[in-house]
Design goal:
- The protein is of the alpha/beta class.
- It has three domains: about 130 residues, P-loop containing nucleotide triphosphate hydrolases (Rossmann fold, 3-Layer(aba) Sandwich), CATH 3.40.50; about 60 residues, Helicase, Ruva Protein, domain 3 (Orthogonal Bundle), CATH 1.10.8; about 120 residues, Zinc Finger, Delta Prime, domain 3 (Up-down Bundle).
- About 60% of the residues lie in helices and about 10% in strands.
- The chain has 17 helices and seven strands.
- It has a five-stranded parallel sheet with strand order 2-3-4-1-5.
- Helix 3 runs parallel beside helix 5, helix 7 packs across helix 8 and helix 11 packs antiparallel against helix 12.
- It is elongated.
Length: about 325
Amino acid sequence: MAVYFFYGDEDYNIELEIEKMRSRLNPDFLSMSFQTLDNPDYQTLINTLRTPPMMFGEMLVIINAEAYFLSNKNYFDDKELEDIEDALKNNPEQLNVVFVVKLPRNENKKPDSRRKLYKILSKFNTKEFPVFKTYKSDDIALWVKNHAKSKGISLNNDALMLLVEQIGNNLRDFDTELEKLKLIAYPEKVVTKKMVQDICISNQDLFNFTELMLKGEKDKALLEFKNLLDKKHPLELLSAIQTMLRKWILLKVNSSMSALELSKLTGQHEFVVKQTLAKLKNTKASELIKLKENLFEAECKIKSGEALDMIAEVECAIIR
């Protein structure tokens, strides 16, 4: 039927595109009509490309092909590449093949266009899936709006812009928050700014908590932590704080860079970068690193089962 070549550093959009294709298959025969192969060798790949589907309608084969492009060695010799190209040109009816190359996020890498395999695949249905630039908030907002629509909800404009400001360009985080907002809004289908404020932790929420810890105001920090627990599970909250601290450390260590460069480095909007740098003006990078280490230790104890009470474990890390 068709051959596709998907590549890019926004793996979530790639996964969504594949899921759309998968949803069109007969659900009663998915075990036979959907297949995923990871960097298969020549014989496995050529057999797959030349094998017609059985009597269960269309078949979809995903070829995860990162090693074909990101490793130093050539996976196929010239004769094998000729066979692969011939098999793709004479693709069996009802067989859809998708070659996927997920690239490291925010490293501006692309598949090596000099490789013969790239030249072969680029003759078919080729599509790049890049990470949204953090400063292109309108593009991100349009994606969020459409993704919300696919879930049967819509967002007021002020709710939409607040969500974009808080999350940045992490599409998986948007998906998670939209699922929560859908539940909060039910039976209504419109998400308001207040709903976003009620369930989504903002940079300011996390900053308030961390600032209190850095100032040594442990009692107030504990109270702020308990307030944050109304919005997040302890592990989810720890993960958010760890992510925030990692970005803050990057900002402090690389503060000589421009706001645009720091925006690309941290995946945050340029405005948020400038705002955060101003707030962190009197904070040392070493203090942030120490705080991150304490919270990371608490997170490890919780995940390994050493902590009998996960909330108490975090509270101990705060007091320490």
